[in-house]
Amino acid sequence: MTRAVLHVDMDAFYASVEEHDDPRLAGKPLIVGWDGGRGVVAAASYAVRRYGVHSAMPMRTALRLCPQAICVRPRMQRYQEVSRIVFGVFREISPLVEGLSLDEAFLDVTASQELLGSAVDIARLIKRRICGLTGLTASVGVAPNKLVAKIASDLMKPDGLTHVTPERVREVLDPLSVRRLPGLGRKTGARVEAAGIETLGELRSAPDALLWPLFGRYSAWVRERASGIDDRPVLPEVEEKSLSAEDTFEEDIGDSRTLHVQLARLADVAAARLRTRSLTAGCIGVKIRRADFTTFTRQRAVTPPTCEARAIAGVAAELLSRWLGGNPGVKLRLLGVVLTELTPASQLGLFEETRRSAKLDAALDEARARFGSGALRPGSTIG
Length: 383
What we know:
By secondary structure, this protein is α+β, with helices and mostly antiparallel strands. It has helices at 13-21, 46-49, 59-65, 76-93, 113-116, 119-134, 146-153, 169-173, 186-194, 200-205, 208-215, 219-226, 256-276, 309-326, 352-371, and strands at residues 5-10, 30-33, 41-44, 70-72, 97-101, 104-108, 138-143, 161-163, 242-253, 279-290, 295-306, 332-344. It has 3 domains: 1-163, Reverse transcriptase/Diguanylate cyclase domain (Alpha-Beta Plaits, 2-Layer Sandwich), CATH 3.30.70; 174-226, DNA polymerase, domain 1 (Orthogonal Bundle); 242-381, 2-Layer Sandwich (Dna Ligase, domain 1).
């Protein structure tokens, strides 16, 4: 039986939930997001997208493009509630469900076809079930692999259904803009277009001499992706690969001491999240974004892996200090602590100092569980 993969993507999910819950918003230019000075667009209704507004755009820019837009603050608990209903529909269809976010997932329905009909029939069934239970629409791509299914789901939004058979993969992909290739990125996409490659067909057939300066040793892999080749399985339980805590400041910060206080607070939050999941991190990094939106990352491996706030904060502070030393006087818009190489936590401390630090973290966790997240804070996080 031919492999059949679906990519189901809810249409303007947060905005659609708000329109459903308050019909007065239906059809109006609606932005979901914080409307403060540093707020960003979490979701944009299709009515406001006509003005050029899109998710992740700074709120100030969005309101400049569409001054009459209605702004609604996110209600994550409500979106999670609707998401659980949607994923319940997915799991009725197939046990092979790989969630990508609250509003999208891959499904491998190859085996489900014997009971439920063709992959297209299953896609239609999913769309009907979601609409009946939530009142919302979803767009679905049906294809022989994850890559093509994801591209296909975006071709006929909203409320679309696009089926790409194995024989039609190149026919469908070749005319599309290179910007349609998942993971290419805005900056890389611009570089590819500047090199004279505008479509996936041109990217697929481009010679190595043209691709190597753009992608280096990944050139062959990019050509395969442009050809619609993708043998990745749908993984129902994807392991958590990273964990982070970051913050965008209301005003750009240039004072080194203030930045270190903010970083210590973020390290404490990230470490607490690790412990909640019973994980340790083997690599600690910082994310640094300047006022001009240029973003830098610095990271360092640690042995043994840790979930202790003191250790994580120490490495993060060292990384930030080195970066600031090479960029004196710079003002930052955002800071973050990024933890990777995650593994299950060990119960054995190797050193006495490690055990004391672990006991302190455990006491903090217990106090916060009983009295709230702000009950106790390390002194290093207080400005």
